[in-house]
Amino acid sequence: MTSAASSPAAIRPAGYALLRAGRAAFLVHRRAAAVAAVLTAVLAAACVAYLSLGERSVPPAEVLKVVLGQPSPHELVVGTLRLPRLCVGLLAGAAFGVAGALIQTVARNPLASPDIIGITQGASALTVGAMTFGVGSYAVLPYLSVAGGLLAAALVYVFAWRGGLHATRFVLIGIGFAVALRSVTQLFLTKGDYLVAQKAQVWMVGSLNGRGWAEAVPLAWALVVLVPFVLWAARAQRTVSMDDDTATALGVRLGRTRLGLATLGVLLAALATGAAGPVDFVALLAPQIARRLTRTAQIPLLCSALLGACVVVLGDLPARMLFAPTELPVGVLTAAIGAPYLIYLLVRGHSVRRRAAGGRA
Amino acid sequence: MTTTGDPTASRLTARELTLAYEDRTVVDGLDLDVPHGAVTVIVGPNACGKSTLLRALGRLLKPRRGAVLLDGTDLARIPTKKIAQSVGLLPQTPVAPEAITVADLVARGRQPHQHWWQQWSDADERAVTEAMARTDIADLADRAVDELSGGQRQRVWIAMALAQETDLLLLDEPTTYLDISHQVEVLDLVRQLNHERGRTVVAVLHDLNQAARYADHLVAMKAGRIIAQGPPAETVTADLVRDVFGLDSVVVPDPVTGSPLVVPGRPWQSPAGG
Asked: Which of A11, A248, A297 faces B138 most closely, judged by CB atoms?
């Protein structure tokens, strides 16, 4: 292949680096790659801090020893108590981040996320129902919550489907189901025993307290299986960000692509909810922050995953420490950061639309 | 100059095409042969079904009955990506992804020629560069599409459709939102593409006089049917204008091109003459 230098005025999408290997060629967004590298470093530092800080502080050098499997006197605190919990947080955070990115892309709406279109509520309803009626053991709850999330999403699909998955209808019907399922959950709570209700309440906010390898390992396997699909999604996402007519004219099988992206997003959200409970706002926040950092035309998946993991890990650290020995659920902290950001997005979105409308005239 | 392409050499045809939204039939049993290598312009009053017909020609709308054929094969039987290698379409109001740059958007026109493992080729680079040079937007390459003027933005969209490098190009009112000089610029570009590159173009236009100036083949529609078609010089008459648009007018030769120029009747005046 001849080099692009043959034509001096050759134009290629701005900000992308071209990686070539034989006939294969990949476009990599430079800024997104740089942001991903920085986020990886931040996440690594956050993980070390997470493992070393707490009621009993452990020097970072000792932390690394434990992680690398070398004998250490801190094996119990770091290896048995903190590491499995960190893994759940990392994996669930990353899954929430990607899930939010995919659902926001399909819905073409930065406010759409699994906790708004009913997936989280479906997981809560089934889990809390099982808790209050004493059906199934504690170990089954994560699986029930995955099932609940998928069930809710299936209902939303069925009702939103009319010859295709229309973005606005999908979001509105999702919001409807979210409200309905939330009241079902409330009903279960009032029916149930006081102690169970309190336990359910904690689960519903999303907490990493008491989570460990039992949640981390199945989640890790599920995510490994989904990685090839996420790679597909990263490319397919580009095409659905245009309007329907333009995308179809460019040869995109829009219906299938959108259904595939939405299904993948729902699966990831349900899996993460099953492992960590509905940690609020991570799926909403991570993709939007990622996009603002990378300035890409579509939501960057890798950076969303890294940011999701960062938000959960950095949220759980103070959640664990602030009122020690009492623990705050991490969902409370992510919600405390998330709610103001949501308001900011709403306010800003409004002014941007107004400017765009003004520009059109 | 107004050579109508030979209808027998048509790559894109509609056969007994019936188009409907929900239960409202918009186009009923329409036949059309898009003349190969010519500029075809579809005109007609509002809601006559001209945009609907264009959408069906570009497989954006599934026919209720009948079919659109590309090289004799029903569009419904051709993979959509394959169609996109032969037929480009620019919708009336396309929407760009937020914060996308001009070069990035134009490059998306290459989508039907790419694979996930081959995201950029020399052919892509050549097509994008050429499309941007032709539409005179090379200087805007790194700008965000959001911040461009209406005229610039329309040229960016046309560049994207050009970068797709299809033999057939369908344009739905490409001059809407443009002032008159940009309208002329866009239509001249369309004509140039047709003459220099032999592209077959089908455009829906609002302005009958522009249609008469730029079309090789004019199709006049009313209420979902084709009322008349042919070279503008033979098609556009005062009778047709009354028939299709319900407007009294005088048709005179265009002082510049000699093509038919429709001059509507005298404007309303107060009966008192004041």
From this structure: A11
